[in-house]
Design brief:
Length: 103
C-alpha cells in the first residue's frame, strides 16, 4: 500500500473546516467513486483533529504508488483537488504534505 499524510492548519478555532463535498460538482464525486474507490485503488481516508483545535491530519491509503500516480494524473481529479485547495485557501487553511511512504 501507498500512504500519504497531509497536515492542515486553520488560522483559528472559529474558522470552520470547509465541507468540501457540499460545494463539489457531483460528477467529480461520481468519477472519483467509479474510477478510484470502487476499483479498490483508493482504500482509506481518515481525518484526525488535534487537541489544539487548529490542526488536522489527513491520512490516505492507496492500493499502490501507481494507483496514486494515476489519481494525480487524472484531469478530473486535478479539478477536484484544485476545488478543495481553493476552499482551504479562501478559509486561510494551510496544507502541507508530511510524508509519502510504501507500507
Amino acid at each position: 500500500m501507498y500512504q500519504i499524510i497531509k497536515k492542515l492548519v486553520r488560522p483559528g478555532v472559529d474558522t470552520p473546516w470547509p465541507d468540501t463535498l457540499v460545494t463539489m460538482d457531483p460528477q467529480l464525486i461520481e468519477h472519483f467513486k467509479t474510477n478510484h474507490i470502487e476499483t479498490g485503488k483508493h482504500i482509506f481516508r481518515n481525518t484526525d483533529d488535534h487537541k489544539n483545535g487548529l490542526e488536522r491530519t489527513l491520512t490516505v491509503l492507496w492500493e499502490t504508488k501507481e494507483a496514486w500516480e494515476e489519481f494525480e494524473a487524472d484531469p478530473l481529479m486535478t479539478e477536484m483537488r484544485n476545488h478543495v485547495s481553493q476552499l482551504f485557501k479562501d478559509a486561510g487553511i494551510t496544507e502541507e504534505i508530511v510524508s509519502f511512504s510504501e507500507i
